């Protein structure tokens, strides 16, 4: 059974792409077959895994029902990790998708042949920093939402907005199975009082959904993308690599059916 | 004469809101009359200046030609700094605005009575992390674009996209006077090699548009918003306050007609 998890948070710069790329790489290292779909027109996950921007390579046409997602799969440098890259034109797809019948389900319709083929254990969706059409499609197609959350005040404010939206999508019937997969604290700097205050606040409000693992601020994580590598290829013994490996174990333990 | 400057970058978390709030406060401290307009549905600038979220307080209806922006002005705790706050509904305005005639000019039409009244030296527009309808309206209404830029690899990739877009808006006639006001390096951590490499790269590509002042990473800047204060109220002698004061002087020197 292929699970679909959206990595989403409308707050910008909280570590969505860094988490999608490194979780995918750590799971592939453990033998999971993973597909990463870059739904952000910025295409950071695409370049973070060393792929060039190619016109027509993204999900754009498949979202409109043209062509098949099975033809868009590309390998990455990481064994067991494939990608459907993004491109700039993906930004333009929002207008076209909005005009479609049942437009919230464009992505789940496009993913159906992939899920039926059963090639992957997991499909991870990297979302742009907005609650626009692409993110809404991702939330409608997903089994769960992984919410990376920077240990900062501004990031705290958006969390309740996201939680309310997930509840609305579930209760309205757009996606009855949608739930919060978990909240991952990122860029945690143990030296600052603010970081610990924010973590306490989140754990209090969202009891039981915050992962035990917190990702520390580690410059190696922000250097790796400039080499087109995940953290486990770039610097496998860094604090960032240890943290994402520990997180991937917690992620697996939580998402496996008991 | 009232100048309009959009603070924009589609990359998330680069310091757009932090720059808008603290530049506005530093300029007000120097005696400039400043209006900050929060165009981001996340409403971070609104809460960062200590205002509550109020339904109907945002620019939503004025963007659609209903009511006047002059009725939306609110004072802040900073003398000389007024705000038009954001609200969650602002996200919904994008669909309504898109249906309007000449939809890119909805904001410049709404700002006209404000500019004609001549109450402010400067109007600053805090933009969401996307190149959607709200940001496009801000770019069409602005005299210049201030681009905050994190000293990170992913942030580098988006810069050329933004520069290209500005050129297109100017050359297409949507906004013939639009230019890059300047590029401000933010969250600069002198201890990392990556930060200096990114700064060198940006200075090479965008010669002459990068401000001399770089804003250092300083935890006091991320603490201030949780008290609803700008950095000069929260901790006027912090490195963050010194950096934004120095930047505001450079900003003024550059934007005054010779
Ligand atoms: N734990 C970390 N330590 C240090 N730097 C990090 C960490 N996680 C992410 N970064 C860096 O912080 C920046 C923001 O992270 P990233 O781009 O992954 O966030 P995002 O949520 O995907 O952003 P956007 O909202 O633009 O999509 C990037 O430059 C990234 O390299
Ligand atoms: N120089 C700095 N030093 C330390 N922290 C900073 C600095 N500038 C901004 N921050 C913090 O980094 C985070 C991102 O900054 P901010 O929210 O201003 O970026 P933004 O570009 O407005 O984000 P978005 O794309 O979501 O609108 C915030 O939590 C902010 O408090
Ligand atoms: Mg991203
Ligand atoms: Mg912001």
Ligand inventory reads: adenosine-5'-triphosphate, magnesium ion
Structural class of chain A: alpha/beta
Write down the secondary-structure element order of chain A: EHEHHEEHHEHEHEHHHH
Order of the strands making up the biggest sheet of chain A = 3-4-2-5-1-6-7
So how many helices of chain A? 11
- Please mark out the parts of chain A with pLDDT under 50 across 5 or more consecutive residues, or reply none: none
User: How is the main sheet of chain A built?
Assistant: 7 strands, mixed
Quaternary structure of the protein: homodimer
According to DSSP, the number of beta strands of chain A is 7
Note the gap between the termini of chain A.
15 Å
- Mean of residue pLDDT values of chain A: 95
Helix content of chain A: 40-55%
Strand fraction of chain A equals: 5-15%
Overall geometric form of chain A: globular
Biggest chain contact: A-B, 37 and 37 residues
Q: What is the radius of gyration of chain A computed over CA atoms, rounded to a whole number of angstroms? A: 17 Å
């Amino acid at each position: 059974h292929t699970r679909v998890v959206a990595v989403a948070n409308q707050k910008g710069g909280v570590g969505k792409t860094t988490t999608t790329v490194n979780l995918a790489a750590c799971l592939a290292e453990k033998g999971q077959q993973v597909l990463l779909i870059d739904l952000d027109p910025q295409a950071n996950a695409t370049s973070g895994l060393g792929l060039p921007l190619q016109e027509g390579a993204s999900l754009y046409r498949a979202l409109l029902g043209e062509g098949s997602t099975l033809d868009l799969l590309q390998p990455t440098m990481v064994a067991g990790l494939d990608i459907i890259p993004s491109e700039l034109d993906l930004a333009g797809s929002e207008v076209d998708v909005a005009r479609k019948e049942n437009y919230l389900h464009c992505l789940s319709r496009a993913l159906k042949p992939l899920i039926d083929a059963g090639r992957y254990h997991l499909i991870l969706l990297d979302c742009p920093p907005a609650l626009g059409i692409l993110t809404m499609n991702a939330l409608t197609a997903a089994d769960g939402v992984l919410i990376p959350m920077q240990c900062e005040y501004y990031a705290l404010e958006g969390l309740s907005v996201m939680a309310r939206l997930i509840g609305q999508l579930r209760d309205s019937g757009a996606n009855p199975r949608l739930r919060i997969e978990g909240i991952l604290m990122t860029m945690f700097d143990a030296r600052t009082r603010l970081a610990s205050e924010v973590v306490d606040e989140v754990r209090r409000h969202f009891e039981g959904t915050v992962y035990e693992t917190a990702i520390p601020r580690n410059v190696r994580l922000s250097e790796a993308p400039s080499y087109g590598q995940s953290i486990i290829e770039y610097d496998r013994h860094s604090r960032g690599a240890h943290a994402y490996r520990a997180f991937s174990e917690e992620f697996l333990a939580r998402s496996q059916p008991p």
